[in-house]
Design goal:
This protein has a single domain, classed as 2-Layer Sandwich (Beta Polymerase, domain 2), CATH 3.30.460. It has 3 helices and 7 strands; from the N terminus they run H-E-E-H-E-E-E-E-H-E.
């Protein structure tokens, strides 16, 4: 675990309590702990993804009742694990926020978070469509912004910028969402 740089701003007491609970429960399974700008980020292995996030939601110290957003990223310079998934969580009970990240190999998926936070469904669909990250057990993994016959993942850094690519962008979304 390491502490990140950044402006010195202490974590809120409620987030420190949640942090202690997470570290007590998971210890070395938290691959990296980054504290910067009064915010906290955990990096976890894909195999620990669901267990850590379930604990953050259900533990009294965390009480992260809202998944603010889930997003994908493509980091081709990281050849062994070029894909990443990041979630931003909010606890309305405690008024604190937290970020959790995991890195994935090409073709590796994650279990869906729709059972914990139903709002994850839309964000997981977007991460799948734009980056090719599969969410196993997702109830409705289908395209949102591109046509059904679109090929490729447009937000990957290796996606071609010129020429005829994949298909076309969907304009009429009626009945598709």
């Amino acid at each position: 675990m390491s502490a990140g740089g950044g402006a010195e701003r202490p974590l809120p007491a409620s987030l420190l309590a949640a942090d202690r609970a997470v570290l007590d429960r998971f210890g070395a399974r938290i691959l990296e702990r980054i504290e910067a700008f009064g915010e906290l980020t955990y990096c976890v292995a894909p195999g620990d993804w669901t267990e850590v996030l379930s604990f953050l939601k259900d533990s009294p110290e965390g009480a992260f009742d809202q998944l603010d957003c889930l997003l994908g990223d493509h980091l081709p310079e990281r050849e062994d694990r070029p894909l990443a998934v990041v979630v931003h969580l909010v606890s309305h009970a405690h008024g604190h926020r937290l970020r959790v990240k995991t890195a994935l190999a090409e073709g590796q998926g994650l279990p869906t978070l729709t059972g914990l936070w139903p709002s994850a469904g839309f964000d997981e669909r977007e991460a799948w469509e734009m980056f090719g990250i599969l969410f196993e057990g997702h109830p409705d993994l289908r395209r949102l912004l591109t046509t059904d016959d679109f090929e490729g993942h447009p937000l990957r850094k290796d996606f071609p910028l010129q020429g005829t690519v994949g298909g076309r962008i969907r304009i009429d979304l009626r009945g598709k969402i």
